[in-house]
Backbone:
């Protein structure tokens, strides 16, 4: 029996409060909306021949379920876990469980901010981490996964 071909689809996950992008705290998170970020990710991926499924939720379990579902039809994951970065062993375990390459993205440089943002439960299982590049970080993440999965 031959193995099924790898899907040319990525999962792009955004965690809690990222639905507010572009509406508040522009000094920290910029003026780009979540819809703009998702369009940027989809366009970048399309130029490289990839599809993207975008998911945003403010609920940890919804994010865990979305990560589990990626096992069926995605080849890699771009994730900005929002504040769950610093708290969620469940999201880390879900990412480990599906076994797909993960690139962690943060709009801000979490290491230049409050101490409680310096630790990430995700970084240790990510193939790469981009922090502080604003929305361009998502494009870097797509580029990196596309190269890795080529
Ligand atoms: O820098 C990032 O991308 C973060 O993941 C953003 C999270 C924060 O908890 C992490 O430490 C770093 C917060 C996302 C909140 O996004 C907002 C956007 C606009 C207005 C209010 C919140």
Residues:
């Amino acid at each position: 029996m031959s193995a099924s071909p790898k899907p040319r689809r990525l999962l792009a996950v955004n965690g809690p409060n990222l639905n507010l992008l572009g509406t508040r705290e522009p000094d920290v998170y910029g003026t780009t909306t979540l819809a703009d970020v998702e369009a940027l990710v989809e366009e970048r991926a399309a130029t490289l021949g990839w599809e993207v499924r975008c998911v945003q939720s403010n609920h940890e379990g919804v994010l865990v379920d979305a990560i589990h579902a990626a096992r069926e039809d995605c080849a890699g994951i771009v994730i900005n876990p929002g504040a769950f970065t610093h708290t969620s062993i469940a999201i880390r375990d879900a990412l480990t469980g599906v076994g797909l390459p993960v690139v962690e993205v943060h709009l801000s440089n979490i290491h230049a901010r409050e101490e409680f943002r310096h630790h990430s439960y995700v970084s240790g299982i990510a193939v790469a981490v981009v922090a502080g590049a604003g929305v361009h970080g998502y494009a870097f993440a797509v580029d990196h996964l596309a190269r890795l999965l080529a």
About this structure: Strands lie at 9-14, 51-56, 76-80, 102-106, 128-131. The chain has a mean pLDDT of 96.
